[in-house]
Amino acid sequence: MTVDRIARLHIQLDDIEPLIWRRVEVPLTMSLKGLHDVIQAVMLFEDYHLFEFEAGGRCYDVPDPEDLYERKTFAARNVRIAALIERGIATFSYTYDFGDNWRHTITVEAVEDGNPSIEYPRFIDGERRAPPEDVGSTSGFEEFLNVMAKPRHAQHREFVRWYGGRFDPEDLSVDIIQDRVAKIARRRTLGKAGFAKSQNQQH
């Protein structure tokens, strides 16, 4: 059994203090679309909106045949992380939800052999909870945090109802993140096993 080579990535949400970040390990064979799925999982986003990676002067997304701007983009599912690293790209950006404009800086911290007993991708660590969907960019998130931290604030009940409960900016919900990432890893493992089986049947 071949051992996956993996990249350790540091993912940081830009323009927010204190820092919101995650560290993950992903296979080099993973596509940028796969990495999008991982970022959604570790940031607890819901994949409601469009996304785009920008790396080495090129943009990668899910191309829209009806794109009015006719921007030159490449299909994120056709580009593997290994290809970026081979081009010498050590940092690149990921933007999710062009309305709220959540820009992330992704840094390749290391490339190494994976552990054959571990299913990748996997979540390593991180700090602080990411903004909820549709909170209204960094300024909206700051207002949201301010109101949520003050039970006597006039809008507190309204915000709690909108969010669906209390919001603890320090709480990563590590168990939920690990469960979401494990589902992606399981799908990859099952997909690889199915592919290997189909190859064996052809021979």
Structure description:
It comes from Sinorhizobium glycinis. This is Plasmid pRiA4b Orf3-like domain-containing protein. InterPro entries: MM3350-like_sf, Plasmid_pRiA4b_Orf3-like. By secondary structure, the protein is of the alpha+beta class. The protein contains 5 helices and 8 strands; from the N terminus they run ββαβββαβββααα. It has one domain: Structural Genomics Hypothetical 15.5 Kd Protein In mrcA-pckA Intergenic Region, Chain A, CATH 3.10.290. It is 33% helix and 26% strand. The protein has an 8-stranded mixed sheet with strand order 5-4-3-6-7-1-2-8. It is globular and about 65 Å long.
Structural class: alpha+beta
How many structural units, i.e. domains?
A: 1
Counting DSSP H or I runs of 4 or more residues, the number of helices is 5
Count of β-strands: 8
Strand order of the largest sheet: 5-4-3-6-7-1-2-8
Query: What's the Cα radius of gyration?
Result: 19 Å
H and E string: EEHEEEHEEEHHH
Low-confidence stretches: none
* CATH class identity: Alpha Beta
Largest sheet: 8 strands, mixed
The average pLDDT score comes to 92
What overall geometry do the principal axes of the alpha carbons give? globular
Per the CATH scheme, the topology name is Structural Genomics Hypothetical 15.5 Kd Protein In mrcA-pckA Intergenic Region, Chain A
Give me the oligomer status: single chain
Q: Let me know the CATH homologous superfamily.
A: MM3350-like
Measured distance between first and last alpha carbons: 18 Å
Percent of sequence in beta strands: 25-35%
InterPro entries: MM3350-like_sf, Plasmid_pRiA4b_Orf3-like
Domain Plasmid pRiA4b Orf3-like: 6-174
Protein name: Plasmid pRiA4b Orf3-like domain-containing protein
Pfam families: PRiA4_ORF3
